[in-house]
Amino acid sequence: MSTENPDPAEAIAHALSRLRGRRMPGGGPHGHGHGPHGEHGHPHGHRPGFGMPPWAGGPGAPGTRLGGPAWIRMLDALATASEPLSVSALGEAIGVDQPRASRLVQQGVQRGLVQREADPEDARRTRIALTDEGRRIARGMRGERRQVLSKALESFTDEEKGELARLLGKLADNWG
User: Fold this and answer.
1) Is 96 exposed, middle or buried (0-12, 13-18, 19+ CB in 10 A)?
2) pTM of the model
3) How far apart are CA 18 and CA 101, in angstroms?
4) What distance in Å separates the CA atoms of residue 57 and residue 20, rounded to the nearest whole number?
5) Rounded Cα gap, residues 40 and 67, in angstroms
6) Contact by Cβ (8 Å): 122, 107
């Protein structure tokens, strides 16, 4: 386990977030890297909008629902980054190509969750950062995820938690 992140639950959450959204080489079983959505084909077995946490909005709340896993990965990546990210770095961090990352950023700007700022090292480039509202939502997501993960790890010994953190980190480091 890494010495930079001594809490196994935090290391596991970080590794899982790094793995989330990574595509299988060759586009995966559906040929395009995305699973089907809907009542039976949604990645987590539930329909979008049902059982969603409060920070995600929901059906009947136009413009408030985040709109899928890529949104969650984007907010999480920006919340955990040590500094604002370029669109390319953001795309790499969340497992999408640059055009998709650009669209996510544009939608995030329109919703007031992210902002563009000039890169202090190169004024021709922009970096992406969370707004106050984006940080609030990211905190809610991370807190809920941490709570669910802690409950799932209750039956693990400290040694098992450390080993799981180490192995997931290794998998994330070596994934395509």
Assistant:
1) buried
2) 0.59
3) 16
4) 21
5) 18
6) no
Token couple for 121:
């090292």
Provide the pLDDT for residue 154: 93
**Tokens 């899982």 sit on residue:** 16
3-state SS assignment for residue 125: strand
Of the candidate ranges 23-27, 151-155, 168-172, the one whose mean pLDDT is the lowest: 23-27
Is 130 exposed, middle or buried, given 0-12, 13-18 or 19+ CB atoms closer than 10 A? buried
* Residue 75 to residue 142: CA distance in whole angstroms: 10
Three-state secondary-structure class, residue 33? coil
Q: Which residues contact 106 (CB under 8 A, 6 or more apart)?
A: none
Can you name the residues that pair with 126 across neighbouring β-strands? 118
Long-range contacts, stretch 61-66, CB < 8 angstroms, 24+ apart: 63/111, 66/137
pLDDT at 66: 54
> How buried is residue 13: exposed, middle or buried, by Cβ count under 10 Å (0-12/13-18/19+)?
buried
List the end-to-end C-alpha distance of the chain, in Å, as a whole number: 21
